[in-house]
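Fold this: Transposase DDE domain-containing protein
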Amino acid sequence: MRGYLETLDEEAMAETLPKRLSLTDSQARWTAAPGGPVFYAYSTNYLIDTEHGVIMDVEPTPAHRTAEVESTKTMIDRVEARFDIKPERLIGDTAYGTAPMLAWMVEEKDIEPHVPVWDKTERKNDSFSSNDFHWNEEAEEYRCPAGNTLCSEWRAFKNERSHVTKANTIIFRSRQTDCVACPMKAKCCPNTAFRKIARSVHEAARDVARRIAATPAYVCSRHERKKVEMLFAHLKRILKLDRLRLRGMNGATDEFTLAAAMQNLRRLAKFSSQGPPVTG
């Protein structure tokens, strides 16, 4: 009970209260699968060795997408500290393809991100998207399809500015005079006087993920994701863990950890029954 109350105090100081709060378990989060019923729940997050299907670590979180993604950092750091093991690549869905997460994998941990890039710059109409603009790394500027330049600043400031916005992006703008006389304006910026592009400060890490997505290894990684989803399906259908018996984050940690241990034991029993490999 003391641990449960301490966790409640820590959570209250760390984040604002959600719109809906469970009267029996305030740490659970209001969630629903697409087309399914709405309920309060926790999420279990696994760090899995896809080659052998073994769960390396487990971290429960409230049913909140941001918390689930951040739990990956906790598990990777913990496995590296305990077993001196660090993954060479990380397989995940689009939720793990945000710019800060990709930067953490590429720049801090040197892990290949085999995840789709979270990208909302693609336009639904026929106008040019940011991918149609060429980035010049040396000059730190964009070139539009018509050959005009987009810069983060068009005049020198007395005091140097970083130009980084609150969203951790840098805005690159074209000259209004270039856009007025451009024959491609109707396809580039039909509703504005000039074109602007918001470039993430972690765009280099996003480019790494895009290059990996075009390799055969990425295709294999997408197939190996089935091993991850299978363990979650077994958790519900075989172990019947579709409802928690304990309340609070501590209770969820105990139940999810025991369930992961049971799944690893089942995997160990399968390996043991096969016997040693035959040589010769």
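Residues 130-201 form one domain. The first strand starts at residue 29 and ends at 32.
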